[in-house]
Amino acid sequence: DSITGIGINDVKEEELPPESPVAKVEAFMQKLFLEVDTIPPVKQPMRFGNKSFRTWHARLLELLPPFVEDLLSKAPAQFAHATVELIPYLAGAFGNEVRIDYGTGHEAMFALFLLALFKLRVIRESDFRLVVLRCFTAYLKTVRRLQTDYVLEPAGSHGVWGLDDYHCLQFLWGAAQLRGHVDIAPASIHDDGKLRGAADNYLYLQGILFIKEIKASAPFHETSPMLNDISQLSDWARVHKGMIRLFQGEVLHKFPVIQHFLFGSILEATWEPA
């Protein structure tokens, strides 16, 4: 609800003082984006999985401890131990360095990182709008570059029978952002002028445009039949509800994804063993 009806560009810079947690996360995503410049892809025979990604990921692991420690500097004293728990969530949010792949489980790991920050009171409910529109969009910019520059293998992709090769939350939160929009309807993804004109402001449209650009050699209804079918729904509220069900069924209820989730004192394992 916090992002419904609000465009990415509606966020004012004065809402993001440099010392705020949101600004720090956004700046760190930009730093990781620029690290790709220093670690260019190597020439290799394989189409997917450029080995330079492993070097980039090793650099990520070097940068994480001081970043997380700085992020927690304003957290309540009882959470001083949290660095060791927070780092793995962020380390797992950019793809697997062994398989050189990326998928919805990695995207969900970034959401777990944000959830942990909320539980640690580093970010608060009043920050949710900025967290999605600034932190998450900066994260998407970085992982899209990793996907294209290092040609990451889609992890667990269903191909044309799935929503998207890499993302789900982008479309879930993107649909929430567009609920009730008077000018942009689900079918607007087929209007090239409207799509390109508004993509910088809306997560869902960014995701659609990215797919159309990287899969330009084939029609959209062939490369993304599920998203194409979704565009026939009457309103964004229905799209959003469907995306919630999809995220629950295809991400949270899938053991190959959930087996990588970590639990500790921040995100506790509170269920009874089966």
Q: How would you summarize what this structure contains?
A:
This protein has 274 residues and is mainly α. Helix content is 53%, strand content 1%. The mean pLDDT is 94.
Task: Tell me about this structure.
This protein is mainly alpha-helical and 274 residues long. The chain has helices at residues 21-38, 52-71, 83-91, 104-119, 128-149, 169-178, 192-198, 203-214, 220-223, 225-230, 236-252, 255-258, and strands at 101-102, 153-154. Strands 1-2 form a two-stranded parallel sheet.
The tally of strands reads 2
Q: In percent, how helical is the residue content?
A: 40-55%
**How would a textbook summarize the main sheet?**
2 strands, parallel
Round the mean pLDDT to the nearest integer and report it: 94
Radius of gyration: 19 Å
Order of helices and strands: HHHEHHEHHHHHHH
State the end-to-end distance: 35 Å
Number of helices: 12
| Beta strand % | under 5%
- Sequence stretches where pLDDT stays below 50 over 5 or more residues: none
Overall SS class: mainly alpha
The best one-word shape is: globular
Strand order of the largest sheet: 1-2
